[in-house]
Amino acid sequence: MKKVIGIDIGGTKILGGVIGSNGDLIKFKETSTDANLGRDHILKKLFGVLDDLFDTDIEGIGIGSAGRINFNTGEVIYATDNLPGWTGINLKEIISQKYRTKTIVENDVNAAIVGENWLGSAKSFKDILMITLGTGVGGAIILDGKLIRGSHFSSAEIGHTILYPGGKRCNCGQNGCVEQYISGTAIYKRYNEIAGSNLVNSAKDVFKLYMKNDKISKLVVDEFVKSLSLLIFNIRNFIDPEIIILGGGVTNSKDLWWEYLKSQIKCDLNISVAGLNNFSTVYGAAKLILNEGVV
Ligand SMILES: [Zn+2]
């Protein structure tokens, strides 16, 4: 059995796993990204995870990173302020030289959809769309069994499609992006905006308050679901997927809003949460290196 490493670099956490070609998770490591400390610090954190997982029998490293990634060169073409200083870094070069093993770098959500297609909720499906709701909002598409990267490696940049023209300022420079309404960050910021004070600092806090019947959180979750269902409706009309997979930290609270979301979508659509929970990208990055990038 081959053994490879799969890595997930997000704005909040770096996750890594040693994965067998049979899909077994052999070893696992997690650390905070502390992204606000910048590029060198994020790299240091990444090396920390890899040093822990790497061994002589590892046959490759697959990395899923937030941002727009040139899959061919392994360069981060563009990353938002969720990963400051990440734009321009060539991860493939750095990691393959440091660990002297073949390395593949892919957008984190592209890797996640590959993971879900391999071992998760989208197993045996061929037309899949994935949306991740975390620090930011990401998207990925598999059509007819093939990962769609786009001609500029920016397909399915759902987070930066505009949901409300003239709406909230986004860190990408546009106004009204999806990310400003349905990301974990957007959820807690909206709470503080309505409250007129910084009472919460995570979406998790908002969902905790929701369970206590807190009025503001009810309003925030209602807005969140309406925005998400509008997005899903648009996507369905655009791609007509067999299944839509929702992933990312926000879906940990799905029990609170899943039925409401389904009632809002108002159409017959196969929609599911990620089956690999927060490990979709780790598994997918591993699958990509196992397949030498052909998915
Ligand atoms: Zn944007």
TrEMBL record:
<dbReference type="InterPro" id="IPR000600">
    <property type="entry name" value="ROK"/>
</dbReference>
<dbReference type="Pfam" id="PF00480">
    <property type="entry name" value="ROK"/>
</dbReference>
<keyword id="KW-0808">Transferase</keyword>
<dbReference type="InterPro" id="IPR043129">
    <property type="entry name" value="ATPase_NBD"/>
</dbReference>
<dbReference type="GO" id="GO:0004340">
    <property type="term" value="F:glucokinase activity"/>
</dbReference>
<dbReference type="InterPro" id="IPR049874">
    <property type="entry name" value="ROK_cs"/>
</dbReference>
<protein>
    <submittedName>
        <fullName>Glucokinase</fullName>
        <ecNumber>2.7.1.2</ecNumber>
    </submittedName>
</protein>
<comment type="similarity">
    <text>Belongs to the ROK (NagC/XylR) family.</text>
</comment>
